[in-house]
Amino acid sequence: MATQPSSMPPVARQLAEWALALDLRDVDAAMLERVKLHILDQIGAQVSCYDLPAPRIARAYVTQFGRSGPASILGTAHRADPEDAAFVNGTAGSSFEIDDYGGNGAYAHPGCVIVPGGLAVAEALGASGASLLRAATVGFETIIRLALASMPSMLLGRGFHQTAAHGVFGVALTTAMLERFDLDATVDALGVAGSHASGTTEYSQSGGEVKRAHAGIGAAGGIRSARLARLGLSGPPTIFEGKRGFLQAFCNAHDARFLHEQLGSHWHFPERGALKPHASCALIHHHFAAYDELRAAHAFSAGDVEQVVLGCEPLTVVHTGATGPRPTDIVGAQFSAEYGIAMRIVSGRNDAGAYLDAERDQFQNPAVAAIAGRVRLEVDPDCATQIPKGKVTLYLRDGRVLFATAYALGSPFNPLGRGDIEQKYLDLVSRNFGDKTARSSLGLIMNLEDVADVRQLTGLFAQPRTRNGKPRDALMQG
């Protein structure tokens, strides 16, 4: 377990100094474009998922127990206090497994906390797009650095869910930047955020929709941490590396150096940020890509498949192998490697519509169930590398054995192009808000540094288009 030398300033202070001194003009162009693409992707997720069950519950909670304010709940005309808006929007953005993640072994979900948290605060302040972009850039990089410092041990060894546990720090720092805290208050915001870090992965073992709310909890907790620090509440300056700090409490193995080395001179996020083309746990996207390679290279049908072996890294076995081949709810289906690969073999689809169709069939499609029951997961040394990947081995009824190893489509080693990412956004947003709003908002986000007031962007999503007077849901309409 690597820690920083005792002669160095606390990690939180180093992070705060770096963040507050950052000039957007000094940020690498590739980093800025990557951040804007992830902001784009997350807003697409939020506005297309706003009326799914978990966001509806979050919205009902805020309506009943929250307070009004200047921040938009995207997809609705409702406005709320930034904490409350961040909670609802974060829940929406993480509610159907189409949000971003950290690839190349940096397990994280930065967009679904940084974007709703930062956007809510920026909107309340009437901040410029450049201010939001600057703060979000720090937020994304901080979460990826936290992932490199703490994962996979935090999840694999302890069972914590990284989304809220990492996200609360990123949003606290983002908020401090937007609200122009001084150095001491920013350090305190990070220290207080450690007491809001939360969330376990028991949902992957026995189910539960609460997983959808973890991003909202992290985004709201980050704003609350910064607000408390602004009012004078202090936090431990050694919240990360201390003897009873975050890394020690949450991890069996950790490396604090990722949190402070090369701050400002090396950006990890462009090397690690990943986006999803499929609506499932990102860990099994490697296997979808490997299967697609086999399907393109060989002639066979679903009925020819006798057995499937998924070669995995250990985390994939633990996180996507617990549900088993017969999920009973949609969270279980999206986190079941067996069920997901069986869907791909039978229909070639793992998009949002495919999982919603499976839910309507109560996960009882006989063709999918038959193959899912013949899928086995195992730890494979070819996959359990520093940069994890997935292997699919098919045993066919005619005696052939086919295998392929691949990186997930959308990950840094198998990236989606900018055009693919923008098309995903347009497809999601246009179904609820029309093509004009989709294209206008895309232009604003991809030129965020030139936007005078972020309310120009959020205002586009206050009135969703309707069909027969009823709200349209991009995911449900297909």
TrEMBL record:
Full protein name: MmgE/PrpD family protein
Cross-referenced Gene3D superfamilies: 2-methylcitrate dehydratase PrpD (3.30.1330.120)
Family annotation (InterPro entries): MmgE/PrpD_sf, MmgE/PrpD_sf_1, MmgE/PrpD_sf_2, MmgE_PrpD, MmgE_PrpD_C, MmgE_PrpD_N
Short name of one Pfam family: MmgE_PrpD_C
Domain MmgE/PrpD N-terminal as annotated: residue spans: 13-258
Domain MmgE/PrpD C-terminal: 278-448
Organism, as annotated: Variovorax rhizosphaerae
Family: Belongs to the PrpD family.
